[in-house]
Amino acid sequence: MLSIENISKAFGGVQALNNVSLAVAPGSVQGILGENGAGKTTLMNILFGLIRPDRGQIRLNGQSVVVRSPRVAQQLGIGMVHQHFKLAPALSVTDNLALAVGRNFVLLHRASFRDRIAALARSLHWAVDPDSVVGQLNVGQQQRVEIIKALLGGGKILILDEPTAVLTPQEVDELIPAVRSLARAGITVIFISHKLSEVNRMCDRIAVLRRGELVFAGPMGELSAEEITHRMLGAPSALSSLGASSASPGLVRLHLSRVCCPLPGTRKYKPLLDNIELSVRAGEIVGIAGVEGNGQTTLIDAILGSLPISSGVITLDGSDLSHLVNFRRARKFACIPEDRQGQGLVLSLSLTANLMLRSYRNPEFMRLGLRHVTAWRSRAAMLVRSFDIRCASVEVPIQFLSGGNQQKALIARELYGNPPVILAINPTRGLDIGATAFVLQQLTAARQRGAAVLLIHSDLDELLAISDRVMVMYAGRLLPTNWPAVDRAAIGRMMMGITPQAA
Amino acid sequence: MNIAGESLGTFLARQTVQAATPLIMAGLGELLAEVTGVINIGIEGLMLMGCIAGYAAAGISGSGGVGLGAAIFAGMGTAAIFAGVTVWAAADQIVAGAAVNILAVGASGLAWFFYQNAREAVHRSVSLGRHVGFQSVAIPGLSRIPFFGPMLFDQYMLFYAAIILAVLIWLLLHHTRTGAILRALGDAPEACQAAGVSVRTWRTGAVLFAGACAGAAGAYLSIMRTHAFASDMTGGQGFVVLSLVIFGRWTIPGLIAGCLLFGGINSLQQILQTTRYTSHSTLMHALQHIPFEFFQMLPYVVALLALATLSRSSPGPRYLGQAWRQ
Hints:
Distance between the termini of chain A: 57 Å
Number of strands of chain B: 4
Helix content of chain B: over 70%
Mean pLDDT of chain A: 85
Largest sheet of chain B: 2 strands, antiparallel
Number of helices of chain B: 13
CATH superfamily of the largest domain in chain A: P-loop containing nucleotide triphosphate hydrolases
Oligomer: heterodimer
CATH architecture of the largest domain in chain A: 3-Layer(aba) Sandwich
Strand order of the largest sheet of chain A: 6-7-8-3-9-10
Number of strands of chain A: 22
Number of domains of chain A: 2
Low-confidence stretches of chain A: none
Strand order of the largest sheet of chain B: 1-2
Shape of chain B: globular
Largest interface: A-B, 26 and 23 residues
Largest sheet of chain A: 6 strands, mixed
C-alpha cells in the first residue's frame, strides 16, 4: 500500500502541487490524469526521489519513508519509466540493464543475466533481444527495455510517465495487456496520461489533477468521460465550438504554381515536391493532411526559401518571391515551425527576448540603437497577459517553461499584429487539450481577421475541425479534396496513397 | 645489416615496443577517461609531471620504485586539479587541459631547479646513481624466442604492466557492470544518474586513473628508457596519445595498434637518422642531405594522415567534452 499524504511543492512562486493526498492499492493500475502543467510529473518525481516536497509525506505499507534520491526509491521498490528514456543508446540491452542492477568490479555472468531478462520479457509476452544495441531499437522496444529495467531490481511499484505519448497506436495496443499482466502479478502501476481513452482501457482507479490540486480520486467508471474532461479542464472542451468559417475568402495571397523540388544529392528523378499547385486566399485556412515524411517539411522550406526549387513559381500577393534573400522572404510570413524548440525559440534566452525576436528592429523598441528596455518589458507583459502564458517571471529562460507555455509564447510572437499570411506545422503536437484548443482558436481568430492560413497537421481530427479547404500530401504530390463533401475515411485513404476518382 | 649485435628487424621491433610503451600506458588512462566523457588534453603535462617527480624522487631516495610511486602520485595530483575544475566546477575541458599543460611546464621546471639546488647543497650528483633507474627485464625462456623474444619479453617492467592493465581494462569495460557504467557515463549520463550512479564521482575516478597512467608513462621516460630529465622530454607524446585514442576509435586493440604504428615509425626514423651516416648504400647516402628535423617530423605526419583518413566514421562518446550539471 502506497499512500501520498498532503504533498505540496512550489517552484519559484508557482504552486505545482497543493496538498495532494492519494492512496494506491497493491496490484492495481492507478491512472493519473491532468493537463500539461497540472502537476502529474512533479508528483511522480517526488515519489521517485528526484524532487523533495515542501510539505507532506509518503507512506509505504504504513511506514513513513523519505525518498531522498532515485537510488533510495529503487531500494524501496519504486521504479520509474520517464517520458524521455534514461537509456544509453550506444550500449546493448544487457549492458543497459546491468547498469541498473548488480555489483561493481566483478565479472558479469552474461548467460544467466540474459536468462533473467528473457524470462521477465516472456512473462510480459514481449520479444526482447538482449544483445541488440539500444540505439537501434524503435521507441516502443526501448520503452520495453525501460520497463524491464524498472522491474529487474525487484520493483513493486512502477511509474509510467506518459508512456503512450511516444508510441504508435499498435504499440499502445501491445502495452495495455502487458500492464494488465503486471498488475495481475501483484505490481502496482501508476499510469500518467492526458488521454482519457487509454486510461479507460488500462486503469482500475483514476485520480485527476488540475493546477496542482487533486480534483477527483476514485474507481474508473464512477465518472463519465465528459465529467472527467470537465474536471481536468475546469471548463467544457473548446474543440467542438471551433467551426469552419462563415466569412467568404478574399484575394489569393500565397500561390504556388507547378513547383518542383528534386531530391538533393541524387541524380535519380524522385522529387521531394512534384508539380505543386496551391493557393491560399485571405480569410481561409487551407489544411494539408498527410502521413509525415511525404514532403510537408519540404513544402514549407520551399515557401520560406530555405530550399531551392528546380522549377515553378511561388508568389505572395502576386509578386514573385524568388529574387528575395532568404531572411527577407521569411520575414513576410508568420511561421509556427514543426520543431518549436529548435527553430521557433531560443531556449537559453528569456521569455521577453523570445517574444521580441520578430520585432526588435522596430523603432519603437529601440533607443539610440540599443534595446528599449521598458518598451520590451511592456510588450512582453502585454503578450503574456493576452496569450495567458504562465511563467514565474518574463525574465526566466524560456527553456524552463512547460511545453504548452513555450508554444503559447511562440504563437504570441508570430500571430500578434495581424500577420497576413500564416504557416503552421503541427502546431499542437505534444500539447494537452486546453493548450490545443487555445492554439486552434488563435488560428481561427486569425482567419476571422482576414489572414491566409496554411496549416500542415498530422492530427486529422483537428485539421478537419478548423480547415475550410483540405488537401492531402502524398509522395511529394498535393491532391485536392472536396472536403467537407467527402468523409474522413476517404481522406484517410488518400493519405495512404489510394487515390479515389471521386475525391 | 646489424645494429648493436642484432639484426635490423629485431632491433626495430624491440625499439618499436620501447617507444610504444609510454603511449600505451598513458593511452589506456586517457581512453578510459574519454569513454566516460572527459577529454584531458593536459595529458602531455601530466606525463611531464611524472617525468620530473619520478626522476627527483628516485634521485633523492635512491630507489626506482619510490620514483615510480612519486610519478604516479604526481600524475594523479595534477589530474585532481583538472577534475576539480572540469568535472566539479563544469569548466571547459579543452581550456582546462591547455592550462594543465602550461602549469606542468612551469611546475616541472621549478621542481628541476629545486632538485638541482638540493643535490648540490648536499654535494651529491644531480644524475641518477648507477643502480637507481630501472633496467629492462628479460623473462627467462620466452625472451630467447627469435624476433618475438626481444620484442615482447625483453622489455621494461612498465610494458608488462601496461599489457596486463590493457587486458584488465578490456575485461572491465566489456564484461562487468562497472564497464557498462563507464561507457554509459560518456553516452548517456542521465541514464547513470537514474541508476543511482554519481556521474561526477565516477568521472573523477576515471580522470584520476588517467592521471596515474600518465604519471607512470612519464616515469618511464625519465627513469626507465633513459635515466635523465630534460624540460621538453615528453616532446608532444601526450598529444600523440590523444590522437591515438581517436585513431583506435576508443577501443583498446585499436589504441595498441596505433601506439605500435607510431612507435614503429618513430624508431624507424631514429634508425634512419643514425644509419644514413654509417651505411654505404646510395639511398642512405642521399638521405644525408635531408635535415634530421624532417625525420623527427615523420611520425607526426603519419599520425595526422592516419587520423584524417581512418577516423572519419568514428563518432566517439556522445558526451565527450561536455560537463555534467545535475
